[in-house]
Each structure stands twice: as C-alpha cells, then as structure tokens.
Amino acid sequence: MSNRARVAIWFAWLVVIAAIGWGVALHLRISSDLRDFVPPARTADQKLLLDEIGKGPGSRLLLLAISGAPRAQLADLSRGLDDALAHDPAFARVANGANDLADVASDLLPYRYLLSPTLDTQRFDAAYLREQLQQRIEDLSSPAASMLEPWLRRDPTLETLKLAQHWTPPHQPELIDGVWFSDRGEALLVAETRAAGFDPGAQAAAIASLQKHFAALPGAAKARLVISGPGWFGVQASRHTRAEADRFGAITTIGFVLMLLLAYRSAVPIVVTALPLLSGAVAGFALLALIFGHAHGITVAFGFTLLGVAQEYPLRVFSHRRIGVETSRCVRELWPLLATAIVSVCIAYLAFFASGVAGLQQLAVFTIGGLVVAGACTRWLLPWVVPPARRDMAATPGLARAWHFLAQLPRPHWLPWLVAAAGVVVVVFAPGKVWQNDLSALTPIPQAELQRDARLRAELGAPDVRYLLVLRAPTAEGVLALSERMAPRMDHLVAQHALDGFELPSRFLPSIATQRARQAKLPDAADLQSALQQAMQGLPFRAGVFAPFIADVEAARKLPPLTPGAFERSPLGARLESMLVRQGDGWAGLGTLSGVNDPTAFDALAGGTNGAVHLLDLKASTESLIIAYRHRILVALGIAALLLCIAVTLALRSPRRASHVLGPMTLATLLVLVVLRACGIPLSLFHLVSLTLAAGLGLHYALFFERRTGDEREDLRTLHATLVCVASALLVFGVLALSSVPVLRAIGLTVALGVAFHFTLSVLMAPAGHLRREP
Amino acid sequence: MRAFREALAALALTTTATSAFAVPGLAESLLAGMAKTPPVSTPFVLVSYRGVLDRPLVVSGNLRWLGGDRMERDIDKPFKETATIAEGTITVRRGRGAVQQMPLARAPQAGAMLAGFRALLGGDVPALQKDFALSAQGSTAHWVITLTPHAGAIKRQLTSLVIDGRDHEPRCLTMTDANGDSSITLVGAMAEQGLRSSAPLESALAARCRNNP
To answer: Which residues, 6 or more positions from A599, have their beta carbon under 8 angstroms from its beta carbon?
Structure first.
C-alpha cells in the first residue's frame, strides 16, 4: 500500500473521530446532578439532600463585597450592580440595603392584616388606634414623613412597614450612603442565582454575567469586586483543576512526543498513537449519549482515567513491528494477548454495570465500549495507516543489557509472601483515617477564602450553608403550623446562643389557621368606624381621611386565606418556594439558620417532635451518600477482581500461569495501598479508580512477561514495549502527582506508584527461567 | 451627599437663568458672608401643613449642622425625638427607645434641608448642584434663595425649598412637597421670637418670613 493511501486513511479516520465527537458534544449532556452519581437515597434526609442540594435556600446565594474606592463611589457601584442584576434573568434576587421591602410588601397589601403578627397581640380598638395615630402625628414631623405619608390613609397602623420589617433578617449590615457597608468599609450585596448552587456550568455563566455588569459600571476599573459563596467556590475549584490539568497536559504531551521520538526514531507513532484511544473515548461518549443521554461529570472523569489503559495498545504494536513484515501480521500475532487483556478487563467492568448505581453503570458502559473500540481500532484500522518498520526495536542499543540485568536479579520465592504479609500489617495497623468521605477535600477552597466567606456571611447575616432545619408534615399547611409552633422555641435557642438567627417558612406565610384567627379579630366597618372616631378625638386628623383604611380592613375580612401557591406568585415568592417543598407523600419545610454554634442544642427539638423537626447537617448527609457509593464501588471492584481471575485463568488455560499474572498484580496493588496508608493519605473514590487503572496496566505487563515466545528478539521487543508503556505512564501520572490540586494528585500518585510496582513485580515475579535466558 | 457638593458653583450661573428677578452675583456674596465653622447650632420651630391634617403640626427644638453631610435635629416639644443624618442615612430615635434607620435617598425633604444648610453655612455649593438649581433674589440685606430639584426621584417628591434671610442670617426654610403639603421651618432669630398663634395660617407665616423686618 502506498504512503499516500495510508495518509488518506489516517485523515479519514481523524475526520470520523471529529465528526462523531462533534455529534456527541451536541447531544450528550454532562450533568453535575449528584443524583446521577450516587446510589439511590435511602433515608428521607438523603432524599431531601438530593432533591434540594444546590436548589435550597442559602446555597444559591452569592455574597459580594466591593472595595478599593472612596465610599461614595462604592455606594454608586453597589447601586449600579444592584440595578444591573435586578434586570438579569440569571438572578432571582439581589439586595444591597437600598431596596425598599415596603415596595415588595405592597404587592401583598390586601393580605397585610392576615400576614402581620400585629393582630396576634392587639385589637383594632379605640385605645390601640389612638396610640398608633399619636405615633403617626410624631412621624409626620420626622425627616422621613414623606415616606410614610402615601401609606397613611390606607394603613394608619403601618402594617405594611411592620410586615417589611418582619421579613427583614434581624441582623443587617450598617447602612452608609443608603447601602450596606461592612466594618471594613466594603459595600456589601447579596445576589441569589436562579441556577442551583452546585451546577458549576450555570453558576459560571451567572458569575461571568455578574462580573461583566460590574466591569461595565463607571469607575469599576479602580474598585475591586470580591465574590463568595458555594457557587463561586464550585466555579473556582473546577477552573483551578482544569487550568492545572491543562498545564500538566501540555508538559506531558511534549515529554511524551520526545519519548516516542527517542524510543522509535520515527515520527509515525506520534501522529498515530493517539487515534485508538481517541476513537475509544468518542465511542464511549456516543454510547453514553445513546443509552443515557447524559453523564455525570465525575463519571466522565473516572471513565477517562480508566480508558488510559488503551494508550498501551498502539505502543505494543509499534514495539513489535519487524523489518520486512507487514504491520498487520505483527498485530495479528499480538492480538491473542491483547484480546485476552481487553476481554478480561471488560468482563471485570461488567461488575460495575450490575451495581445498580447510575453513575457506575455509565462508567461501565463508557469504559467497556471505549476499550473494545480502542482494541478493535488497533487490530483492524491501525495496520492500514502504519507503514512497514524500517527498524527492529529489538536492536535498540542497551535493551539487551537491560534484559540481562533484569534476568540476573535475585528472585527468592519467599520474598513476595513476606512483602505481602508485611504490607497487610501496614495497611491494617497504620494510624490515620482510612477513607476520605469529604468530597470537597479533593477540591479544597483556600483557607483565606473560607475565612472571608465566614466574615461576609456573618456581616450580612446570610444563612449557614451546612445546616438546615427540616420540618416535616403531611401537608404544606401542617408544615406552616409546625413552623409557627417552633418559632418561639427557636427564639429560645437564639437566646441561649445555640445559633445567631433563623428564618422559618411561617415568617413569610402563616398557616391558614393563623390567618383565619387574625381575620376573625378584624372589626367590621361599623365597629372600626366608631373606634376610629373615638381614637381621633383631639387629634388634628381630618375627618374621613381614613376611609380607605376602613375599606381595606373590610376587604381583608372577606379574603380567602393566602395559600403557598398564591404567595409564591408574589415577588417574595421565591423565598417561600425554596423553604417549602413537596417530598414524596408529604411536605418538608426548610428553615435557614445562621451562625450555628451548638448543633447538639437541636437534639431536644427533634426529641420533642418525634423527629418531625430536626437539624439537617448537609455535610454529614453528603458524606453518608459518599460512604454508600464507596461501598457499592468496593463490592463492584471485589466482584470485578473475581471475574478477572476467572477470565485470565480461562484465557491462559492454566491456574499456574494465571497465578504468574495475577500474583504480581495483587501484590503491586497491595504495595500502593501500603505507601498511601503509610503516608497517612486517606483514600478517596479517586484513589480507588486510579488503583483500578494501575491494575489494568499491570495486567498488560504481567501478561506480556508471562508470554512464552521462545524467540529472544521477540522477548526484547516485549521489554521495549513495556518500557515505553511504563515510561509514558510514569511521565503522565508522575507529573500529575506533583499537582497542587488534591484530586489530580490522588490520581497521579496512585497510578504512578501502581505502574512502578506492577512493572517491578511483573519482572521479578515472572515465571522462573523465563527471563533467565542469556542474551 | 455628593449630590449637593457641586451646587454652589453653579449658583452664579443659574441665578440669571432661572428667575426673572434673580440678581447676578448675589448668591456668591451672600454665601461668602454666611460661611461659618461647624458645628453651628440654632433653635428651630417647624410648622407642617399636611393634607391629612386639619390644622398645622408644630414642633420645636434645636438644629445642629456638624459639618459636611452630618446634621442633628432634636425635637423638645411636644415630644422628644433625636434625628441624625450622617453618611447618607437618617436615624430617628424617639423617647421610647425605638430606633429607625433609612437611607437618606428615600427622604428627599431631609436631604434638601441638609443641602440647604450645607450651602448656607458651609459654602459648599458643588454639593448642592447635582440635584438642585439655585436662584437668589433681593439684596444682601434681605434675600431669598430658591432650591429647585433638577429631576428624578427628588423632583417627584419635592417641588422647592425657599430660604428667606436677612444679612448673614437665614430666617425661614419653606419646603413645598410635590403632593401640595408644605412646611415652614423658622430658624435663628425668627425661631427665638416663636409663633404668635398655636396654629398659624400658612399664608400669614409665609408673609412674616418675607416681610418681617
């Protein structure tokens, strides 16, 4: 075949990969929904967590601080940003202290007597009205008289204002120039995104939009905008991880290219070697798109890691080519062994498919599909684009000497057993925690940012993102009634300093029973008229000036009570919507808490209500989900290991030969665990997946070293291939191990250690006599 | 308050443009003569004429301009109240201890009052100019300065603030709200003289401000 034809096929292959990749990119949705990733929730709190995480109150809040300019300018910037965000569809709400809640409350004006707690303790009798009217007289001389006057005729008791104050969090930052300022002189704002807090894509878009609004404000160039909150942290973490992965990716790509040039003295492997892996990845994505339509981001990251095994297939082919022999023949000779490896690994991954966890099933589909396609491409496509060899890798200078050296190493039979026993002791008895349950520990937020977040949160009185108060009842009305009963007990907890503040759903919408009770206390028009007349005696109010008030009270007496559905359509509706959610057959109320100092103080609350009211620790609930997920992974891995043993034994048709392959793999995996445990590194899901990748690579080393060819040059080519594979894996993952991002470091360190151990042990534990042949 | 910082500079320019009777140059000489070092304190009598009331409200006490955008107003009669304007925020404290806070931006009348005092006592014209047009009439011995809001939120609530004065002393500040309500604040010598009636007619009080020697 001509070189021209090879280039044509190579190009066509590339085009097909690009086309399928493009199609998949259009159709596959990469989700960040935890429900795709973790096993089905078992407890009600886990369900609530999965339903509400990121959507709940608090987690969608971004805390903003503007600094670095004179106060007046900061206040202008605050107002400008407030205005821009109020018109941005990505944001549900923005507050900077200047917003007049009375304006918002005016939408619920007819309901004010049903919503305000005034009537719980007062009656609209002559005495109360007179006291109120006297206060209004004083108000009319105050500097703020112009604010009150428009309300006066309709609302002489200023119920609208009381309602607005009732809905304002008790703790607010200082108002300077009409907007919130921190103690350090930063202008403060709170913005609530419509997107869930843990949807990094939507959060990134919202934050980019926010930053664009800010940059467009006059004078913004000199000022500094600081953003904080769960959404910001998520975006920062993924941005940081991606940036570092890209940086390391560039370094390793250059290293990899140089290494290929050095190993093969040819440019062909450079342009061809990535094609089977790319084909596999694209095929994996296409399968995910066809079967699931979407995949979790973490699943994709795990899948890509596991697919790394396929990088070895073309490298083996390049090392085993011989002068004057068609590439296709060399591939055919290698194929039984490669196929054994591929099939064994695929059978093992079937265990993931049976796990019943969507994330793991996606992982299995992606990995099995990817490996099969990468293998098939190597077997049937690669020979068409690789020209015949001009060099035999067996003749590589130094290779024979390396073989000799490895062959001379002592191989005491008892050593593996001793190492294994010592390893088990270390793994079992090493101090430090075994598992890392905190997913956020893998993408940590810098300490300085955490401290700043805590400071801004305290200054703004913004809710805690870790704790929620859960109130359960069969109906929404039941939740609201429960919430009303809990309010005094929560006040008590605040007085005891167990927490700094709270917001319950009933603060915004009282139960229907309470609304009716207040309604019943409203006097009829005649009674109110006479009470007013009595109250106005001697006061300078014009006769008849409060006719709109009498009409409003009369209307309020006949109103149907406000339901959650009706309230949620008002401008304040979003606040209630996130606090009152349907869950299965019942309803759950979510109270936000700020400054939780003593979580145990809530135990009594839970005890007194038979658990209908309790503190939900989002961190603990997430960790319980992670533990459940890890349990499934471990079970799946256990079954996978068993399946692998069976598959390898069947393929080699000999338990003894299988033991030569499986022995080094097991011991190497154990040794990686020994190193991690000895270094006090708690194991995360990423470590487990990396161990699996390393084992997949180790299977190749062991299988090829175990192979009996009877041909010295072929053995040298095997060594060449293995050395290239080991070096490339060490390069890629060793560099990753230097990363400052824990998740990348976990993958890098585990795989690099694994590759080193697997290689060493597959050499040292290869069947006696195999390597002993003199070169 | 930056809103008021640029006002006096335009005073000379706007005097001719905004009033047929305006006297060019009068405002500068008036304001140059009146500038004082804060704190400046004066008794006051505030008479409010409100649409919801059938007779005027009268309160009296002390006004203090502390310099810049800080001002205090203590009401002694008929009830006790302390109102502070500082850093763009109004804080009102009544005898019973309840404290109310609100942005100055939402109470343009209070803002206009502060702006007037700043201009009169501090000579800070630029601060005034962003939000108000100024005009002066009369002579240095007997003058009237009128502040008219340019536009926007302030104009929706406030029609004008007219300040009457003699020589170097302001005497009356007459505020007319957009809804027709009005108030007259007597300061300095006028406040010391007090009211001649417990419910003075608006026209009578206005005439006294304008004509009383």
So the answer is: A467, A615, A617
* Complex ipTM: 0.83
- Which residues neighbour A673 within 8 Å (Cβ) at sequence distance 6 or greater? A423, A427, A683, A691
| Cα–Cα dist A319/A724, whole Å | 8
Residues of chain A in contact with residue B109, where contact means CB-CB under 8 angstroms, are 143, 145-146
Name the one residue in this structure whose structure tokens are 């926007």: B152
Examine the pLDDT at B12 and tell me if it is beyond 50: no
Per-residue pLDDT of A4-44, as tens digits, reads 999 999 999 999 999 999 999 888 887 766 666 666 777 77
Residue A400 has pLDDT above 50, yes or no: yes
Integer Cα distance of A141 and B185 in angstroms: 11
Say yes or no for a CB contact (<8 Å) between B106 and A144. yes
- What is the per-residue pLDDT for A377? 95
Q: Which residues of B fall within a CB distance of 8 Å from A168?
A: none
Q: Name the residue facing B104 among A178, A540, A543 (closest C-beta).
A: A178
Q: Residue A100: which pLDDT band, with cuts at 50, 70 and 90?
A: low
Per-residue model confidence (pLDDT) at position A606: 83
Query: Given B50, B94, B103, which is nearest A140 (Cβ)?
Result: B50
Would an 8 Å CB–CB cutoff place B59 in contact with chain A?
A: yes
Helices A618-652, A655-678: crossing angle, 10 deg rounding: 150
Q: How far apart are CA A136 and CA A140, in angstroms?
A: 6
Q: Is A753's pLDDT higher than 90?
A: yes
- Min Cα separation A558/chain B (Å): 28
B103:A98 CB<8 A: yes
The token pair at A672 is 């990686």
- In chain B, which residues have their Cβ closer than 8 Å to the Cβ of A179? 103
Query: Residue A680: phi, psi to the nearest 5?
Result: 75, 25
Establish if B71 touches chain A: CB-CB under 8 angstroms: no
Average confidence (pLDDT) over A504-514: 93
- The secondary structure element, H or E, covering residue A95 is strand A91-95
pTM above 0.80, yes or no: no
Quick check: B25 contacting A, CB < 8 Å?
no
User: CB of A537 within 8 Å of any CB in chain B?
Assistant: no
For strand A187-193 and strand A91-95, is the pairing parallel, antiparallel, or unpaired? antiparallel
**How many A-B residue pairs are in contact by the CB < 8 A criterion?**
96
Q: What is residue A531's predicted lDDT score, i.e. its pLDDT?
A: 93
Nearest residue to B105 via CA among A146, A551, A353: A146
Burial (CB < 10 A; 0-12, 13-18, 19+), residue B203, is exposed
- Check residue B31 and give its pLDDT: 67
Burial, A451: exposed, middle or buried (Cβ in 10 Å; 0-12, 13-18, 19+)? Answer: exposed
Whole-angstrom distance, CA of residue A702 vs CA of residue A706:
6
pLDDT above 60 (res A775):
no
Measured between CB atoms, does A83 come within 8 Å of chain B? no
Q: Which residues of B touch A75 (CB under 8 A)?
A: 88
> What does pLDDT average to over chain A?
87
**pLDDT tens readout for residues A600-648:** 888 888 888 888 898 988 888 888 888 888 888 899 889 989 999 999 9
- Minimal CA separation from B74 to chain A, in Å: 10
Residue B9 has pLDDT above 50, yes or no: no
> Distance from CA of residue B17 to its chain's centroid?
22
pLDDT of residue B25: 64
- The CB density around residue B163, as the number of other CB atoms within 10 Å, is 25
Q: Would you state the structure tokens that stand for residue A183, as one six-digit string?
A: 């103690």
CA distance B8 to A715: 96
